[in-house]
Amino acid sequence: xxxxxxxxxxxxxxxxxxxxxxxxxxxxxxxxxxxxxxxxxxxxxxxxxxxxxxxxxxxxxxxxxxxxxxxxxxxxxxxxxxxxxxxxxxxxxxxxxxxxxxxxxxxxxxxxxxxxxxxxxxxxxxxxxxxxxxxxxxxxxxxxxxxxxxxxxxxxxxxxxxxxxxxxxxxxxxxxxxxxxxxxxxxxxxxxxxxxxxxxxxxxxxxxxxxxxxxxxxxxxxxxxxxxxxxxxx
Length: 234
Hints:
Blueprint: H1 5-10, E1 18-20, E2 24-38, E3 43-46, E4 65-78, H2 79-84, H3 96-102, E5 107-116, E6 124-127, E7 145-148, E8 152-157, H4 158-164, H5 169-176, E9 188-193, E10 198-204, E11 210-218, E12 224-230
Antiparallel strand pairs: 1-2, 2-4, 3-8, 4-5, 5-12, 6-11, 7-11, 8-10, 9-10, 11-12
């Protein structure tokens, strides 16, 4: 059955959206990460530590400029604890949502990375594609998905990633591999191409290693509104 991309992404891009499975209760919250400079307007999604300057940009381009980046973080509570919890004395009608807010979270995971091109409603979604996509990089739903081996991902201009490829390993390690790693979204950033001001903002990717698809949102007029990478948390 074909995947409804809009339904899938609507679970990720709404403040306070909630998803429950047998193991966990997730609540989504948006975390602004500042602006990303796109000198060429050619957007790349990749693991910036393993494949910088190697992954081709998407076939969809946007006008050069600065665009806001946001991570959507899933705040995780154990569902078993919620199921077994009982309302406090004097509050017999409290629901699971109220219990979730009062119980300590067990984890945080980056559920999506969202690059906003236009501040307009998205009315249609499409898979983001790269030229001559390797069929080995198509996920089970048939979407092109970039591989992640380092546990971080980015949406950046191709010139920023080409510049990052010239860095020494010691410099990459110092900037993008701190110990301990910051909590999700674990945003790490650097200007990699001083001539244009382009840089890379890297975030933790869902549950870590894997392959993650990106989607393009369009406005009612067909203009590009956003790029969103789904890290398959919910």
